[in-house]
# Entry
Amino acid sequence: MDDTIIDNSPVAFYSCKLTGEITYFNQSAVKEWGRKPVLNKDVWCGAYKIFHPDGTPLPRKDHPVVKAINNRIFDQKTEVLIQREDGSFHNLLLMPQPWYDTNTNLIGAHCYLVNGGSYGKNHVKQSILSAIVESSDDAIVSKDLNGVIMSWNRGAEQVFGYTEAEAVGRSITMLIPEERLEEETIILKKLRKGEKIDHFETIRKHKSGKEIAISLTVSPIKDHNGNIIGASKVARDITPQAEAQKALKKYSENLEVLHQIGKSVTQILDVETILKRITYVTTNLTNSKLGGLYYQYKSSNGQSSNYFTGSSVEQENIPKLKSLFTSGQGIFTQKKVLRFNTIKTKEGSPEFSFVKQLDQHFNLGSLMLVPIISKSGTVTGNLLLGHGETDHYSSDDELLMMNIARIASISLENSALFEQVKSLSEKKDEFIALASHELKTPLTTVMGYLQLLSKLESDSHTKMFVEKSLIQAEKLNNLIEDILNMSRIEKGKLHFNIDSFDIKNLLKDITQTFSHLSDNHKIETILCDNPVIIEGDPQRIEQVILNLLTNACKYSPEADKVEVKLEDLPTKVIIKVKDYGIGLTKDQQNKLFTRFYRAEGVEGISGLGLGLYLTKLIIERHKGEIGLTSEYGKGSEFYFSLPKNLKESSKILKEEVKIS
Ligand code: ADP
# Structure
């Protein structure tokens, strides 16, 4: 063959070896490919990229030249799509011919290329798009403006159950549940206006009649003149997501319910109220016809208390429900929820006779019996819920009720315990009041005789013993008085006799008397010149000052003085008692005014830890304030204020005083 003829031939031609390397190409082939391949380097074809005619990738094994050589089948015309380097696509017919050496051994192929016309990128895009549509899991459907289905992909077959043949030509309304037909009118209206509907979550009908949750995107289809000729519809089956969302919603609603119930019952410390609330809430939450809660609390000493509350749409049912519960065999001890979807089931179970009785009286269709399980794991109560219809309760109800029962159990245990502690504490307070009262009566007689004796006795030795006994008896008397005052003040029975008096005078008298009694401490006073009149109970104020003075001396055994100061301000007075004694740490200062508190290290000093507690209560009842500054190891200064015009400053207090 004359190479120049082939070189300049209008027929595109090239040769390649058995291994693909191109060994020759003519000018026309370069024109078709749009490029010059590199000889002995480029293989099988000189095109920039090569595809199947539909635009899908062409694997090496499917290349027409490879196939011809491998199968020894030549002279076939195969259509391929090539892309040139400028991005344009062209259709080519490729015709491989065998290439033999002189010994007729196959050594490669001579290939002819025939131009099949050029395509824009759109052709490929179109092919790719249709491939995407076909392989999509989403339902992709097109319809005209009357809602008639025009195309239907494989995804649509899967989502809606109809084949393409069954769907095309029918109205899209076959997929819409009757109560939602209105939606299609709205959709079509929007489409006609050229608007798109994005991710619209709705319900559609499967061929089987089952409803499916879908997310819908509908876009108008326009012709090349921009006229709207129909709509494309992409529907995604979101049933699993919708169900998960529903479950999540239900779950978070339940959590909220539990949180609210927990919040409301944990603050209650009264068993009856908790029972009522739990019964009411559970009956309402489950839409029950009647509910009841039977609870039994056994204290550590074996004492047990029974409680019952009922809740019903028909109030007259409650006493009957109570009698059925309380006259029965007590608590059902099964630790799981018993759910009777119909009362006829589970015959023979221990609870069945009870359930049957309930049914006889209340005509129930379904019932739930939820155990209340204590911290220690024993069943302490039963929550009962009943409904007139069968299958009323679901496993969700069961779970929710079980969780509520858990909350109820904790709160009930706490409040039952609290009630017992409260009644014990009341008994203890009564005992203290009674005991102190009983102690006081003989002590007063003893003190009377001792006083008489100290006056009559002339022997100085004996007189000293009697006086020492008298001092100790008075101390004892003060302690008993403190205890009595505590129980009186806590019951609101401490009497206050409000009067106007000169606090300066009172302070002077107290400090003078106290100076005589104190052996080791000098009482230094800074008082005002003029009388300072205030309103209050002088006897109680005296008690306060004496307590602070006694403490100041008691807790400064190494010191030799205590300072007392009166400050006269326009509306109030401030009294300060300062010592140079053991002082108090910050932590001790915080606990100081609580009942029976005594700081560490004062065990050798007599006291009950009641004085400051009472002092604070008395000052507060006078609408004053009490506080201290103290440094551990250096000393303390206690101060309190009293309003001058008590009656004016506190009408409420007057009321209190009257009542007490
Ligand atoms: P009591 O003195 O009978 O123990 P109080 O209620 O008067 O009870 O005081 C409570 C506690 O406060 C005392 O036990 C003591 O530890 C501490 N305390 C009170 N006054 C002083 C003080 N002036 N200095 C140091 N500690 C004091």
About this structure: The first strand starts at residue 12 and ends at 17. Residues 652-660 have pLDDT under 50 and may be disordered. The pocket of adenosine-5'-diphosphate is lined by residues 547, 551-552, 555, 579, 581-582, 584, 592, 597-599, 602, 607-613, 636 (CB under 6 Å). The longest helix spans residues 395-456.
